[in-house]
């Protein structure tokens, strides 16, 4: 009858048992661990507190004062600026305008960008492996070109295009037999905001198209091949394969574009620096700029900035919530084996 001997060296290499409650024992704080935490956690945290949290706290403080901006004298007025803001018809109009921009611009821009990306990456031959159309690199460059041009230049170019007397847009429409001679696109309340939205979308759709192209390139080709074998067409593959796979990219793009739409200073300032007819295109950032640097009411303008920051956070939270409620961000949770537990069947191997 053979006897099983236990090697003391092998036994000494076994993992130490966890502490009571199944929690692993704390490791000792060595110089290497402390320096690692300082370099990779402490420094970024210090930079974040210094350049993000501290300025935001300062903004909240100045928003509760009547500071004029060009002197050291100010009085603490508490929430008076915020109370006055929500009784200010001009500010409320600007708030409604940015809410409209945040509702329309991200949806239309990302829909067009996704359409361009899908056409370039999946619009190839219907037979054989799934691949994009020919000359895809050329189309990527063309679609990305408007984003390369600075936003202020884009706004100034389109301001000239919309000119009622010498604008290229009216000239083309008139040559086509349409009655658009001396039509003021930016001077009418009914067309000013749609014109601003068009310029906004035109300037940004190319960037997000390239972003979605890169995301779609990362989708495993086997998924498209399986969908094609099941008889799915291009539209069905887009809904069932592409969108669920790049969902996180779409969510991130929606948040970034929504923040840009809520700010919307450069494009609107280049097109309509005074806020358009009857303030129909006035944004919060424009109202803030006019209040601070024209009226000299920096405390009141800072309160506008704080409200804009809160609105931006609410918008981001809504996007996350909608994505979560519609099934995004769900991960399959697998029960991990207990720490230090032996694999199944290992107990009998030492007999």
UniProtKB/TrEMBL annotation:
TM segment ranges: 34-57, 98-120, 141-161, 195-216, 253-272, 298-322
Domain spans labelled ABC transmembrane type-1: 95-319
Family (UniProt): Belongs to the binding-protein-dependent transport system permease family.
GO cellular component: plasma membrane
Keywords, ordered alphabetically: Cell membrane, Membrane, Transmembrane, Transmembrane helix, Transport
Gene Ontology biological process terms from the UniProt entry: transmembrane transport
Region (Disordered): 1-24, 331-351
UniProt xrefs under PROSITE patterns: ABC_TM1 (PS50928)
Pfam families according to UniProt: BPD_transp_1
Bilayer topology: Multi-pass membrane protein
Localization in the cell: Cell membrane
SUPFAM superfamilies: MetI-like
Designated name of the protein: Sugar ABC transporter permease
């Amino acid at each position: 009858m053979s006897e099983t001997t236990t090697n003391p060296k092998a036994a000494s290499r076994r993992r130490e048992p966890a502490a009571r409650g199944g929690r692993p024992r704390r490791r000792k704080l060595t110089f290497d661990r402390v320096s690692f935490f300082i370099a990779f956690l402490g420094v970024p945290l210090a930079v974040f507190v210094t350049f993000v949290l501290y300025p935001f706290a300062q903004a909240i403080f100045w928003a509760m004062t009547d500071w004029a901006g060009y002197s050291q004298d100010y009085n603490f007025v508490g929430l008076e600026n915020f109370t006055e803001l929500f009784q200010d018809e001009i500010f409320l109009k600007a708030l409604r305008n940015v809410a409209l921009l945040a509702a329309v611009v991200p949806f239309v821009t990302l829909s067009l960008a996704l359409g361009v990306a899908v056409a370039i990456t999946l619009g190839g031959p219907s037979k054989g492996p799934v691949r994009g159309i020919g000359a895809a690199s050329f189309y990527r460059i063309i679609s990305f070109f408007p984003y390369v041009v600075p936003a202020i230049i884009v706004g100034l170019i389109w301001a000239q295009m919309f000119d009622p007397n010498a604008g290229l847009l009216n000239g083309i429409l008139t040559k086509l037999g349409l009655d658009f001679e001396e039509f003021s696109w930016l001077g009418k309340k009914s067309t000013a905001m749609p014109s601003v939205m068009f310029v906004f979308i035109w300037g940004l759709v190319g960037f997000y198209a390239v972003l979605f192209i890169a995301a779609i390139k990362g989708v495993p080709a086997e998924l498209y091949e399986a969908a094609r074998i099941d008889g799915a067409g291009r539209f069905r593959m887009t809904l069932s394969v592409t969108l669920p796979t790049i969902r996180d990219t779409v969510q991130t793009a929606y948040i970034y574009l929504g923040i840009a739409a809520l700010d919307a200073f450069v494009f609107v300032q280049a097109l309509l620096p005074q806020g358009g007819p009857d303030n129909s295109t006035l944004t919060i950032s424009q109202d803030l700029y006019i209040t601070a640097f024209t009226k000299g009411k920096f405390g009141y303008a800072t309160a506008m900035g704080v409200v804009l920051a809160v609105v931006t956070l609410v918008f981001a939270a809504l996007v996350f919530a909608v994505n979560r409620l519609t099934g995004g961000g769900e991960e399959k949770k697998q029960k991990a084996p207990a720490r230090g537990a032996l694999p199944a069947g290992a107990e009998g191997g030492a007999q």
